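Fold this sequence, please.
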Amino acid sequence: MAAGDDLKLLGAWPSPFVIRVKLALNLKGLSFENVEQDLSNKSELLIRSNPVHKKVPVLLHNGKPICESVVIVQYIDEAFAGTGPSLLPSDPYERAIARFWAAYIDDKLVTSWLQSFRGKTEEEKSEGKKQMFAAVEILEGALRECSQGEGYFGGESVGLVDVSLGSMLSWLKATEVMSGTKIFDPVKTPLLAAWVDRFSELDSAKTALPDVERVVEFAQKRAAAAAAAAAAASEN
């Protein structure tokens, strides 16, 4: 990291997408200022930095904004090439495969996970849960293929796919606590279960991942607030 580089991360601690960027910054050994945002009262800096979506995360590199978590992770890897480990393979084909699975995590796993507890009906929630477990099983096969017998999706070292999935761990563990259901089952998905333990022990992960109990408390408060708002709406 050059002496003149200034990195600010506009984020909110519970967001897995913000956690994703923190993981990448930590893995690369980059210093940054964490600028926590109140998403119920968005700052002028956030709105100005991401005028299209007005969402976190936003990385400010010497004042220039970069938006969307996967885009930011890839930017960090390219802008700070030679600093810390590479998060994307040098081979174009392997790089394309990593991008495919990173997109799969957001398109299939994250989407179905959200549906599993935000669905409007029990049927929607049940279908989301079903699709989530289907995505996890497919990721078990992806890990087998991408790791080539090593510990991570990136092989011997953590890569883009590890960062993408790793950013979800606190929330997925919190979901296990609240639902009583094991998402990464050591019997059904042994490679992923071992990967979760391995990834969670990384210093960069310990620093970036929020405490599971804190996430559970946040999720329960949010659910209670949503239920109260729905009840109030039905009375009017």
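Residues 7-79 form a domain with the Glutaredoxin fold (CATH 3.40.30.10). The mean pLDDT is 95.
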